[in-house]
Design a protein that fits this description.
By secondary structure, the chain is of the alpha+beta class. The chain has a single domain, classed as Alpha-D-Glucose-1,6-Bisphosphate, Chain A, domain 4. The protein is built from 3 helices and 7 strands, in the order βαββββββαα. It has a 7-stranded antiparallel beta sheet with strand order 1-7-6-5-4-3-2. The longest helix has 24 residues.
Length: 140
């Protein structure tokens, strides 16, 4: 399994951030690799994602959502991954957002250690997109 952890600081109060990671309508606006989200049940959604030139559908389960963070995990057989979003208040209107991703890249990319740097750069870019989205939404 490949593990990536990336963080970014945003100028938004902490209490506004984590609910965005459970709002199925917000996820595609905030994270560009998620094209569409379709609710399947109370805790499972089908994400249509595009990553590194490939488009696929994944069923994901919301495992937990609380002050410690939001955790999504794969509900699709053969597609192992976990995503956790965590926040840390840096001040009244400043928050550090951390995304931890663990996935099975499979094949030579993982064996050669190439999956981690590619995924790390992709997560950094997604965090920049998320920062722009939340700051536009909450900073007046």
């Amino acid at each position: 399994m490949t593990h990536v952890s990336e963080s970014i600081d945003v100028i938004v109060a902490e209490q506004h951030i984590l609910p965005l990671f459970t709002d199925l309508h917000t996820l595609p606006r905030m994270l560009s690799f998620i094209e569409e989200v379709e609710p399947i049940s109370a805790d499972v959604a089908r994400w249509t994602v595009a990553f590194m030139g490939k488009r696929k559908q994944l069923d994901v389960r919301l495992v937990s959502a609380g002050p410690e963070g939001v955790v999504w995990t794969s509900a699709t057989p053969g597609q192992a991954f976990d995503v956790q979003a965590r926040t840390q208040a840096l001040g009244p209107e400043d928050t550090r957002v951390t995304i931890d991703v663990e996935f099975d890249a499979g094949g030579m990319a993982e064996k050669l250690g190439l999956a981690r740097p590619v995924a790390s750069k992709a997560i950094q870019n997604e965090l920049k997109n998320a920062k722009a989205y939340v700051e536009r939404r909450f900073v007046r």
